Each structure stands twice: as C-alpha cells, then as structure tokens.
Amino acid sequence: MRGPSKLGWSIIGGISALILLGYNLGYGKHTFENLNVLTDPIKKIDEKCQCEGENFCFPGLNESLEREYGRPFPCEYYNYLKDFHITEADITSLKTNGINKIDDNWIPVFGSAASSDHFPELRNLVLDVRKRVPNSKIIIYDLGLKQTEADEVKSWCNVEYRKFEFKKYPAHVRHLKNYAFKLVIAEILQTEPNFFFYDSSVRLEGDVHKIIPKALKEGKILPFMNFNSAGHSVYATIHHGMLSYLPFPQEILYGREYQSLLFVSDSVYTRRFIRWFLLCVLTKECISPKGATVSCDLSVKERIHNKMGRNCHRFDQNLWNLIQLGYLFDPVEQGAVSLGLVDKWGNGAEFIKNVLKKIDDRYVPLGLKFSVKRGDQTRAPIKVECNNLVL
Which keywords label this protein (predicted)? Predict the structure, then answer.
C-alpha cells in the first residue's frame, strides 16, 4: 500500500492542527471539575454583612471589576439557609455532584409551577414533555389551581403533584407577578439532584434532555443554567432597586439577558447560586423593588444600551443573570477562565465585551433547543398515560 505523498502529509498535518485547535475551542481541556468556586472570605467582610457566621451581602462588582458588596439581606432569613442546606458549612462540605449521577439510565426530571390562569398552557407542556421524553418524571407545583385542575394533575401518569405552601414564606411571595414563587426550584433541589425547570409556555426541541447534561459534563455550561436569550440586555429591563443588593457596573449589564428555561444540577456552585437567589426572593425590596413592573416599553428599538421603561423589571430573570454574571466576572473565582470562555483574566471595557461575546457564542445555540409558545393551550381535560397519550 502506498503511503501519503508530501502533499498528503501536508493535508494530514493541517487537519491535525485544526483538530487540536477545535479541541481547544471546543473546551476539551475544560470539564465540570475545573470550576473554581471558593469559600466566602467572611473575616474580610464588613460586620454589618455577617449573620450567624454567614455572609449576607452579595459579592458584586464595581467598575474596576473589584468586589463590591451589596446591601445586607435580613438576618431573619438565616433559618431558610439551614432548611435548604445552603449555609457555608453545607456548601463547603458537599462531596458529590449531581452530574455524576447522570448516565445512560438516567430518567430525566422536569419541573414546573402554575396557577389556574396558566393551566391550559401547562397541559400542553406536559403533553410535549411526555411525547419527547416518554420515561420522564414530571413535578408540578400548584400555585393556585382549582380543585378540578389539581385532581387532573394527580391523575396523570408519573406526574408528581405538589401543593406550594405559601405560608412558609414572607407575604410578598403570594403575589405571583413578582415571581418569588420560583423558589420552588430550591424545594425541588432537596429531592432531585438534576432537573429541568420550565415555565408552562416552554416547548422542547430535539434531544435537549441529552444535549444539556452532556454540555455540563464537558464543562461548556454551568450547573445552574438559564437558556433562551431575550432580545434585550439585562440593563434594558432591570430596576435599580435590585442593583442595591446585587451591585454591577453598567458595562456588564449590557450583557444579553437569558430567560428562565433552567437546568439545575446539584453542586457547590449550584448551592451558592441558590443561596443568593433565595435571599433575594425572600427580600421584597430585592426581588420586587418599589415601582417595579413587568410592563415595558416595547417601542424601544435598540434594547442593549437603552432602558425599556424607567421601572421595567424582569424580576427572576434579572436575578438569574446577575448571579451568573457575578461568578463569571468575579476577580477571585474568575469564572470566565474556569469555564474556558477566555484563556486569561483581564479587566476594562474590552475584556468585558469579549467575555459577553463569548457567552453569547456558546449559550445562544443551546437556547435554540427550546421554544416559548405563549398561548399554546388545551382547554379540555387531558389524560396522560405512560405508554401513550389520549386526548
């Protein structure tokens, strides 16, 4: 058999170089275990931020990308940290990661929550999930369903009904328009080490239940991720009141906002994330600052550097994005390096722009694995069977 010619060897060499380059660009050297998540330096934090030995001030950022701590969250919420196993001791003592429990035999888990006005959409979400992932487990939180609707959910095969206990939480959590009820995600994490969480209007595309966990194992995404990019920046739809608790410079807020289509996998990073999320949603002035409204000025064309209304606010979506951006740009943890978005740390406007672009390059394609179909409803009761669906 003849060996390759000089031209052939040149081609092979070129291909090999491209493969190696692709390996680096494909984050081959970055795996889930590379994530750098450090203990909060409690001894260096202002006394007003300390509560029962815990840091209650979010480590945000100033314009120089140095840590700037936000307003302290109320110390009265300390017991929630204990209940959800997200004290600093709980976080640092965690020995296992949820992603290690995902193998070829993993049964995907999907969670959602709905009140009566979104129940027709919820029916179609459940039908869609069961059609695409027949063996999946589905968890539904009742945020105010009618008795007939709750009974219908209980009749669906392999769907777990959970009544959300509003009385366990501050009064403002009852107001669904501030989306503080999304703390059901912290409740699900107590029983499920890996799960997707969707609003009732979300629909799946392809094998997303396989693609997303694979991306996490390969170190391409974080173990608490929100997908499906919005057509605006975080800056365009955030009320300044939230930024008093989670401070960030404007340049970082120009990052694209990603919506609440979530994949959650238990880890040190995830529990630290849930900790800040929980403290904010329990604090009314953080999740729902005075004057904040979901109504925004849709006539605004350029939605990156312009506000879409003075009080326009995306509540939970803003919070997800801020906590994630805090990790990626934190000068101590340097999450953008750990995740392989950049090779070395930097600062300044160009560094911020580069990281934000790399985030979009990686996350936007994954967001296309989902779709949002508001108004996609089924008004009549449905039957959800394990082997086949009967309308």
Answer: Membrane, Transmembrane, Transmembrane helix
Region for 347 from its dihedrals, namely left if φ exceeds 0, alpha if ψ lies in -120 to 50, beta otherwise: beta
pLDDT at 96: 86
Let me know: does 313 contact 286? Beta carbons within 8 Å. no
Compute the distance between CA of residue 253 and CA of residue 133 in angstroms, rounded to an integer.
36
Q: Where are the domains of the chain?
A: 92-374
pLDDT digits (tens, 9 = 90+) for 45-64: 789 999 999 999 999 999 99
92-374: CATH class: alpha beta
Predicted pLDDT at 136: 94
Model confidence over 370-384: pLDDT tens digits?
888 888 899 999 999
| Of 43, 49, 46, residue with least CA distance to 75 | 49
Question: CA 329 → CA 33, 61, 253, 264, 361, distances in Å?
Answer: 19, 8, 12, 21, 17
CA pair distance 43, 55, nearest whole angstrom:
9
State the Cα–Cα distance between residues 23 and 92, nearest whole angstrom: 32
Amino acid at position 328, single letter: L
User: Would you say the C-alpha torsion 347, 351, 355, 360 has a positive or negative sign?
Assistant: positive
pLDDT digits (tens, 9 = 90+) for 140-164: 999 999 999 999 999 999 999 999 9
